[in-house]
Amino acid sequence: MQFDAPYGHALIAKYAMATRRHMYEYGTKIEQLAEIAVSARYNAGLNPDAYYRDPITIDDVQSSAMIADPLTKLHCCIRSDGGGAIVLTSEERARDLPGTPVYVLGSGETGSHTTMSEWDDFTLSPPCTRAGWPSSAPGSRRPTSTSARSTTRSPRWS
Q1: Mind listing the pLDDT tens digit for each residue in 112-123?
Q2: What are phi and psi of 67, to 5 degrees?
Q3: Which of 56, 62, 67, 68 has its CA 20 to 30 A from that of 20?
Q4: 134-137 — which CB contacts under 8 Å span 24+ positions?
């Protein structure tokens, strides 16, 4: 780590290495990963404030400029340096507001390593893996008993 943080690979190169390892370990095809970009762009097309709203195809993703093998420009996320927020209120206050409330039963967040080179397994993101641990505690709700909605749906998955 002493050289990785100050002199190491660019972040996209690390994700490219993790991608290659995932492809090797699980047989993941680059076209499957291109579908993520296609789905994200489809969803962006529904948002009038999105940077890029025009639909793209798997072929568009595959033929865009190579950034860090095997990831092309369209595999990469659009850097927006934006922010996000969740506004919460009480159940009593929600009754007075227009629209149907969404009840939040819990959430999780975690961090782990300074750099990806510290990960034990490049195919797993320790923060993402650990964020789900509280839901496996005794007495907690399981995904099978909790309603959830995916934020990345493409027309083919409808």
Answers
A1: 666 666 777 767
A2: -105, -55
A3: 56
A4: 134/106, 134/108, 135/106, 135/108
**CA trace torsion 46, 61, 123, 22 (10° rounding):** 140
CB contact at 8 A, 96 and 110: no
d(CA 67, CA 19): 13
Element (H, E) at 68: strand 66-68
CB-based contacts of 119, cutoff 8 Å, min separation 6: 112, 113, 125, 126
Q: Which stretches within 46-137 are classed as H helix?
A: 58-63, 91-94, 126-131
Nearest residue to 106 (alpha-carbon basis) of 83, 74, 76, 137: 137
pLDDT-based confidence at residue 11 (cuts at 50, 70, 90): confident
Mean pLDDT (the chain, rounded): 76
Tokens representing 112 are: 């782990």
